[in-house]
Amino acid sequence: MPIIPIDDPEDPRTADYRDVRERDLVGRRGLFVAEGEVVLRALAGAASRFRPVSALIAAERAARLAPLLESLPEETPIYAAAQPVMDAIAGFHIHRGVLALGERVAPPSAEALLAAAPADAVVAVMCGVGNHDNVGGVFRNAAAFGAHAALLDARCCDPLYRKAIRVSVGAVLRTPFARFGAAPDLPDLLDRHGFAAVALSPSGAQPLHRYRPAGRTALILGSEGPGLPPEVLVRCVTVRIPMADGFDSLNVAATSAIALHHLRFAS
Fold first, then answer.
1. Kind and range of the H or E element at 100?
2. Which of 84, 100, 135, 211 is surrounded by the fewest CB atoms within 10 Å?
3. Which CATH architecture has domain 3-103?
4. pLDDT tens digits, residue range 227-242?
5. Nearest-5° angle of CA 115, CA 221, CA 219?
6. What is the pTM of this model?
7. Which CATH number fits domain 110-265: 3.60.110.10, 3.40.50.790, 3.40.50.1980, 3.40.1280.10?
8. Is beta strand 31-35 parallel, antiparallel or unpaired with respect to 98-103?
């Protein structure tokens, strides 16, 4: 496992790691940034659907990380820099001391993901969820409760944004996902593949705990505030999570955890 020392923040070999915060929003030539040991482990793991391109670590962590670094493909360059040099490259303090680059792959189509789902599959569907923390949280919950896949409409943020991957603790790299276009097209897409469309809404027609899934089920989540479009809600089974009097709002990631657990394990 040869480690390549980096002493100069301007070293061209680490150019794709520069100014992480700013460049995450505009892309990196088809690459994405993975941050932290847990996320690197997910990227390197057999379940990952993406290829590691390189790693940049704080030099003082190299010994402890050796088993993980050795699990990367043999051709993956591993750069090590003193913490101040690493921070200068990234543009802020990387307190976890671990960054990596992964290569994006062409995502499957939503049609293909749904067609390949098992008979009892649950998929998490996001419409207009633009917050990276929330998208990462939904992916984390989808992985935790065994969802088959995640679908995102065109208004959702990029799940391969660095922060979304980090919040998901690497679940974005393991859970298949696809885009499906506009939210009003969703009910037809789900119907073609035999999925019951279950939409969460504070005004849902029935409490979530009374709903019993039968066969393929899609849990549909909207953005906090606007929620799901009326043209989607009218074609779904709508459910709500009962709450204390005077309060009717949960963070969408927290909501997804409650609902996915119920849909996967309700008896």
1. strand 98-103
2. 84
3. 2-Layer Sandwich (3.30)
4. 899 999 999 999 999 9
5. 40
6. 0.93
7. 3.40.1280.10
8. antiparallel
